[in-house]
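Why do we care about 3D structure at all? Because function follows from shape, and shape follows, mostly, from sequence. That is the central idea of this module. The next example makes it concrete: a single protein chain, its amino acid sequence, and then its structure expressed as tokens.
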Amino acid sequence: KKKWSKGKVQDKANNNVYFSEETLGKLEKEVPTYKLITPSVLVDRMRINGSLARRALRELEARGTIRLVSAHNSQLIYTRAPVAVATEA
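And the structure:
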């Protein structure tokens, strides 16, 4: 009698669907320091769902803390905003 394997079982992602105060603070503080910022990076590191990640990125871009590098269909790529360097004259 053959015993068939059950296949690979993947863990269910238990991501937040609302911003908590802790997550919001972490988002505002840490995300602008990332070199590459995409919705999938936020989902992975912040444990939030994709729609929250996209909304957070739009908000950070509106504030000017990050800037859009490329937008192709649903894949948005951001990077940290250039820091204004004081020039000595």
